[in-house]
Amino acid sequence: MAGNASCSWAIHNDMVEECRKFAERNGIHETRDSKKMIDALRALPSSKFALSLMDNMGKPSVASSCAVGPRLDFDFIPK
Prior knowledge:
This protein is an all-alpha fold and 79 residues long. It has three helices and no strands. The protein has a domain of 38 residues.
């Protein structure tokens, strides 16, 4: 169902802010500079990166279970 707009997790209202929060949860505080943030995220061990995606799994909503996932590009597909 990846990319299926009828799935609640296929649409996220503020992906940039969600990525900044994810980086900060992983000890990366240089989040206003996208290049530095991405370089720091790439330097994380893959196991830490993957496990930190599951931090929200205890929440009741599927939409909040994994903030980073397939998304629609609203430049081409309107909400």
